[in-house]
């Protein structure tokens, strides 16, 4: 009987039946063949090719089991890294997504009998963090990629730099306070003593004036001479005239206060920009550079333009030279810094998605100065923008 035509109903029905997942008991891992029913599986077991595979496996069964175990471990961890990143997720969720692929390696051909045994083994080997809860086992991938480690070190360095800035600002405030107190006489606290009478018969008298300690009849003001009046008038005038030293001290105090207020304003703006930051930075129509070596030297260090952003962390890029299209993760790309005077797009922080003009680059601080050219910040000059927070526009 001849083979059915490609567009015949029987051929179409066979293709529909062969799609998707089928029963595991009719799958031969050695031959990697899926049978549709029990009769087909029986015929496959009696086939000569299957018998040859069994003979090869009987010679060294551990070699085949190790091969399938390595394949299962590599594919499972790759799915965990690409799909969930470093998030904590239930192991069944990852496994169900893994087995949805038709050509996956089955668990019964590996050295682990159950998914729980595999999860425990992964945690013991240090490939991922695992923990047991009443709802089951959870798994979290440990990213040891050099690029990820480098980014984490840069973040730690920035945090340390921020702490150093806070310490410097606190020291600066102390210096301003110390400068404001220079030249001022320290005020001595009044000394209070207990009232004691040495002689019980002696009368205690208080004089409200400053001339004598014993109370006496007060003199009328008409008895005061003209010299005394002139002296008192001169003292009052002298009290009213501010000295140049006090004026300069007040100016110093005002300038220090202004500097402190400016510093607090800068600190507040810095905190606002930090709160507006996100982990993802991909934006369409920007130029990026491919930094991963997993695709070979053909694409390493090549520039591309982002055509589409998917799930915030994945981008479809088109190479500038060859025109090839690739789907890459955010960790495999880096921003491109153009020459001064070119247009860039802000990718993170308070001014995210704003177009700007690159004014200059500070190579020591790995930052740049931008002039915003769109939105409500048009014309505003921003200094100290990190390299990873903007990129050249396509």
UniProtKB/TrEMBL annotation:
Outline what the protein does.
Involved in DNA replication and the cellular response to DNA damage. May participate in DNA replication factories and create a bridge between DNA replication and repair mediated by high molecular weight complexes. May play a role in illegitimate recombination and regulation of gene expression. May participate in mRNA processing. Binds, in vitro, to double-stranded DNA. Also shown to bind preferentially to curved DNA in vitro and in vivo. Binds via its C-terminal domain to RNA in vitro.
One Gene Ontology term of the molecular function aspect: RNA binding
Keyword Transport found:
no
- Region annotated Disordered sits at 155-196, 233-257
Localization = Cytoplasm; Nucleus
Q: What is this protein called?
A: DNA/RNA-binding protein KIN17
Cross-referenced Pfam families: C2H2-zf_KIN17 (PF25095), KN17_SH3 (PF18131), SH3_KIN17_C (PF25092), WH_KIN17 (PF10357)
- Residue limits of the DNA/RNA-binding protein Kin17 WH-like domain? 52-178
The family classification in the record reads: Belongs to the KIN17 family.
Locate the compositionally biased regions of type Basic and acidic residues.
155-187, 238-250
State the organism named in the record: Muraenolepis orangiensis
Summarize subunit and interaction data from the UniProt record for this chain. Associated with DNA polymerase alpha, RFC1 and cyclin A, in multiprotein DNA replication complexes. Also associates with replication origins at the G1/S phase boundary and throughout the S phase in vivo.
- The primary location reported for this protein is cytoplasm
Q: A GO BP term, please? A: DNA replication
| The entry's keywords | Coiled coil, Cytoplasm, DNA damage, DNA recombination, DNA repair, DNA replication, DNA-binding, Metal-binding, Methylation, mRNA processing, Nucleus, RNA-binding, Stress response, Zinc, Zinc-finger
GO cellular component, as recorded: cytoplasm; nucleus
* Xref: InterPro entries: C2H2-Znf_KIN17, DNA/RNA-bd_Kin17_WH-like_dom, KIN17-like, KIN17_WH-like_sf, KN17_SH3, KOW_KIN17, Rib_uL2_dom2, Znf_C2H2_sf
